[in-house]
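hiii so um. not sure if this is the right channel but i have a protein structure encoded as tokens and i wanna go backwards to a sequence. like what aa goes where. can anyone help
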């Protein structure tokens, strides 16, 4: 009888331990699934960001080309005006020194 009682108590302890272990495993699995879902979302967002950057890159290159052409044209327009102006400033300085 005492053996049966001891076996029943051992069985109850093992059942409790097994239930706790099963609960912990379930929590670990939930956490793992959440982490994997987060990683998938992060990867998707990074992929979308890269696609967006690749899509915008030709536009940015074209804008850069246009800007460089505009700067070059403005420099060409300014140069003829600037040279006489600089010569005039030098002449004025020379005249002052005399």
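sure thing!! here u go:
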């Amino acid at each position: 009888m005492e053996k049966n009682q001891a076996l029943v108590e051992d069985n109850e302890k093992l059942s409790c331990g097994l239930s706790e272990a099963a609960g912990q495993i379930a929590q670990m699995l939930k956490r793992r699934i959440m982490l994997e879902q987060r990683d998938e979302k992060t990867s998707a967002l990074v992929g979308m960001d890269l696609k967006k950057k690749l899509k915008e890159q030709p536009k940015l290159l074209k804008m850069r080309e246009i800007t460089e052409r505009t700067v070059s044209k403005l420099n060409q327009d300014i140069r003829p005006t600037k040279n006489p102006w600089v010569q005039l400033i030098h002449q004025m300085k020379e005249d002052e020194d005399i």
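oh and The chain has a mean pLDDT of 89.
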